[in-house]
Specification:
This protein has about 250 residues and is of the alpha+beta class. Helix content is about 45%, strand content about 20%. The chain has helices spanning about 5-20, 30-45, 50-65, 75-115, 130-135, 180-195, 220, 230-235, and strands at about 120-125, 145-150, 155-165, 165-170, 175, 195-205, 210-215, 230, 240. It has a six-stranded mixed beta sheet with strand order 1-2-3-6-7-9. Strands 4-5-8 form a three-stranded antiparallel beta sheet. A hairpin with a 5-residue loop joins strand 4 and strand 5 (about 175). Helix 1 crosses helix 2, helix 1 packs antiparallel against helix 4 and helix 2 packs antiparallel against helix 3. The mean pLDDT is about 85.
Length: about 250
């Protein structure tokens, strides 16, 4: 999500607050356009992450506030309640969206600290330019880090994933989700550069110092038949949280 889109959505929330407090004297059509455009922007933002629940919510909001045809003829007090719902929904989403992004950055810093600068060089790191530009930057789909060993020249790529807890699977087993489409992209990256790709998964605690750390070869995750990786499957790749990667680690 780029800066202009973010500011527009914050502006929409502000106007909705004014409308809720009976302090907005502008046109209802302008308000409908603002919510409609904000909803579409959020649909586009979240659709790429595959979170269908949020897509459904924002689609419903966009339909209700669409400026082309008014489906609902509601009393003013009811519209005020709808406005409050939209304010709360937009605010919760933005809080979670940027909260998760912050956790991701902190976990990436933690993972990079496991590759000492006197042993490993960071060859590349994804910059999330797509969010800033509002369009896809292909390099953002690469693994988060590419490290090169100073002495041996060994190169490895690492994708970082942090979760506050294990999720519950369909059959009651604990684990985490792994998107196959991402795995295929990382696999293509590794094959194209002829380097191994690993996935660092942090679970629990603080992203700066997770309770548990798993360092998984990409092919192991991609070979799991489902997109849900159980805790049992991950245990073989668990490592001590504070042990750095040295010359003989790969």
């Amino acid at each position: 999500m780029n800066v202009l889109t973010r500011l527009f959505i914050f502006g929409t929330i502000f106007v909705l607050v004014l409308a809720t407090l009976n302090l907005y004297s502008g046109s209802f059509d302008v308000l409908r356009w603002a919510v409609f455009i904000s909803g579409l922007a959020l649909i586009y933002t979240i659709y790429r992450s595959g979170t269908i629940g949020w897509v459904i919510v924002f689609t419903a909001i966009s339909i209700v506030f669409n400026p082309f045809y008014q489906f609902l003829n509601l009393e003013k007090n009811i519209w005020r309640g709808v406005d409050v719902f939209v304010i709360v929904t937009f605010s919760i989403f933005l809080y979670r969206y940027y909260g998760l992004y912050k956790k991701g950055v902190e976990f990436e810093k933690y993972v990079s600290s496991l590759f000492p600068h006197d042993i490993w060089v960071i060859v590349d790191r994804t910059k999330d330019s797509s969010k800033k530009l509002g369009r896809l930057v292909e390099s953002d789909t690469n693994p988060d880090f590419t490290f090169r060993h100073i002495t041996t020249g060994k190169i490895v790529a690492v994708e970082c994933k942090f979760h506050s807890y294990f999720y519950k699977g369909k059959y009651g087993d604990s684990g985490t989700w792994w998107r196959k489409d991402q795995g295929k992209r990382y696999q293509a990256y590794g094959a194209g550069h002829k380097i191994p790709v690993f996935v660092a998964i942090g679970i629990g605690g603080n992203p700066k110092n997770p309770q548990r750390l798993f360092f998984c070869p990409l092919e192991k995750l991609n070979n799991v038949p489902y997109e849900f990786i159980t805790e049992t499957d991950l245990k073989q790749f668990e490592r001590k949280r504070d042990v750095q990667f040295l010359s003989n680690s790969f």
